[in-house]
Amino acid sequence: MELVEIVYKLVKQLPKEELYVLSDQMRRAAVSIPSNIAEGQQRHSDRDFKKFLSIARGSGAELETQLLICERLGYLPKESISSSLRLCGEINRMISSLMIKLTD
User: Is the pTM here over 0.85, yes or no?
Assistant: First the structure.
């Protein structure tokens, strides 16, 4: 949820021409992470939960890529995205650990 808040603040800094493209994709990817974790947990099946965790992890990777695109295009400075990238990495590591625990 913290990452969602950060991303919503970051996309406000993007140029207007990215309003319906990159910023929309970034918001969707960020929201997808906690949403898929919550939905998968409510399925009450480890197999289903792992499937939704995998989707959440993919959304995290997608968001990381979009943040790097923003940097490469000069839309956001590296300093603005570094904490978001760290948080994406941390979240994806936590999701991976949870997936391993569900396998045991």
Answer: yes
